[in-house]
Amino acid sequence: MNESWTTNASPRITLSANDAGSGVGAITYTLDGGSAQSYSGPFVITGNGPHAVSYRATDNAGNQEAVRTATCASPPLSRPA
After folding, report:
1. Domain count of the fold of the chain
2. Which domain holds residue 57?
3. If you write DSSP's letter for every residue of the chain in order, what string do you get?
4. pLDDT in tens, the chain (81 residues)
5. pTM
């Protein structure tokens, strides 16, 4: 069997949060352990390899959720059907 992998476009990351109490104040994220960034809209991850996106939301009362981390590959790979 001859298999090959194909690459797709670089991943586009969208973050969102909901807070029924005081409302969402901000979402922050880091990419690969870098500096914290304020999230203002979808962003694209470039550079080959796996990447870790850590993120959390803060509500308008100052409450912060626990940091969550997701890993994705850039560019993503898919196996042919």
Report:
1. 1
2. 9-78
3. -----EE-PPPEE------SSS-EEEEEEEETT---EE--S-EE--SSEEEEEEEEEEETTS-BPPPEEEEEEES-EE---
4. 445 455 566 788 999 999 999 999 999 999 999 999 999 999 988 888 889 999 999 999 999 999 999 998 776 555 555
5. 0.79
81/74 Cα distance (integer angstroms): 20
Beta pairing, strands 24-31 & 37-38:
antiparallel
In a domain, 47, yes or no: yes
Q: Is residue 63 part of a domain?
A: yes
**Residue 44's CATH number:** 2.60.40.10
